[in-house]
C-alpha cells in the first residue's frame, strides 16, 4: 500500500547530491525524510557524518583508481547505495527504490492501465519472482503463475540482475515481443509474449451454473476498486446470487483507502479493519466508515501466496470480525504501509512507515495470514477466474479449481 507525497528540496550540485543520496543509507537520514526536516548532511549526528565521510573516501578511491573507468557510473553507484540501504531494513518485497522509469510504471499500474506483459514482480531472496499475473494480460493467457522465478529475458540469463534491471529488460513498446524463461518446480519454461496495453477489470463476477453462488474476483486495490466491486456485487444479486465467493488470490494490494472502503461493503459501520502501528509504537485503529451500508449475504474468501498487502488487510478484517471463512493458502506476508518520497531526479523511495496488525492484534509482516481451511493447488489444478468460469459447467468449474470448490461447499452447507 502506498501514498504519494511531494517534498521541496534544495538544489544541490552533483557532488553534494551523491552525498545526500548516500545519507539515505542511514536511518537518521530516513527519519529526516519522514518528518520533513532539512536534508542537509550538516544536520546529521556525529556517527552519521563519519559514515558519510567513509563512503566519500571509498567513492574517491573507486573514481580515481578503478581499472575500468568506463564502468564507473555515478548514477548506478548512487542507486545501488540506496537499494543496498533499503535491503538492510528487512522489509523485503515492499520497501524499495524506484528509478524514474519504475516510478512512472508503478503509477500507471495503480491507475489500472499500462503497457506490458501483465505481471507484478517482486524481489524474493535475490530472485526475481512473479508475484501475480494480471487477469486478461499476455502473461496470464500464456500460463505464467505466481511463484515463477524469472531466470532469463530474451535468452540472456538475469539471475544475477537486480529487480530494476529485469524490469527494464522486460519493458518495451506495445506490439513488440519479449521471451521470458522462468523456473517452476525445478523445471524451466519459456514464454514468448507480445507486449500489450493491459486494462484488466479490477472486479469481475460469474455465477456458478445452476446455483445461487457468485464467484467474484477483486484483482487489486486501484483507484476505483471499491466502486467496481460494488457494481459487480449488485449485478450478481440481480442475476440471483445469494451467496458469494470473494476471490483475493494473486491480489497484490494497492491503495490503503480503497481497502478500507471495500471492507465497508462487508463489515458493519465502526468495525475495526486493521491497526496501524507507527515506528514510535503508537497505534491507531482504522475502522469502517459510519455511513457504510454492508451486504449481509454469506461470504467465503479465497487467498493464496500471491495475496499481499491490501488483500491481507481485507482478509484479516473479514476473518477477525467473524464475517467470512478464509480458504486456500497462507498469504505473502506484506505488513507495512508504504509512503512515496520523491527524489530530485524523478526516482523515489517507497518506504514502510507503519506496520499493520489485524483486528485481533496479529502481525502480518513476515508471517502472512493463515486460512481457516487450507486447500493447496495440485498438479493439473487451475486457478479459475470469473472470466474463465464462463462457458464451463458447474462440474467442470469445481473439478478444475479445488479452492473454489471448497468455498462453494462451505457456502452450500
Distance between the termini: 35 Å
Whole-number average pLDDT? 85
Q: In total, how many beta strands?
A: 20
Q: Given the C-alpha coordinates, what overall shape results?
A: globular
Number of helices: 13
Structural class: alpha/beta
Q: Which percent band covers the strand fraction?
A: 25-35%
Please give the largest β-sheet. Answer: 6 strands, mixed
Poorly predicted ranges (pLDDT <50, ≥5 residues)?
2-39
- Helix-residue proportion: 25-40%
Radius of gyration: 23 Å
Please provide a written account of the structure.
With 413 residues, the chain is of the alpha/beta class. 32% of the residues lie in helices and 25% in strands. It is built from 13 helices and 20 strands. The strands form 5 sheets. Strands 1, 2, 14, 15, 18 and 19 form a 6-stranded mixed sheet that branches. A 6-stranded mixed sheet has the order 11-12-13-16-17-20, with helices on both faces. Helix 9 (256-263) packs parallel to helix 10 (310-320) and helix 12 crosses helix 13. Residues 2-39 have low confidence and may be disordered.
Write a concise keyword list for the protein shown above.
20 strands, 413 residues, six-stranded mixed sheet, single chain, alpha/beta, disordered N terminus, 32% helix
Describe the structure concisely for a colleague.
This protein has 413 residues and is an alpha/beta fold. The chain has helices at 14-23, 27-35, 46-65, 74-87, 100-111, 138-142, 163-170, 225-238, 256-263, 310-320, 386-389, 394-400, 402-412; strands at 2-5, 96-98, 114-116, 119-124, 127-133, 149-153, 156-157, 177-184, 187-194, 196-198, 203-207, 213-218, 243-247, 272-278, 283-287, 299-303, 325-328, 336-342, 348-357, 373-374.
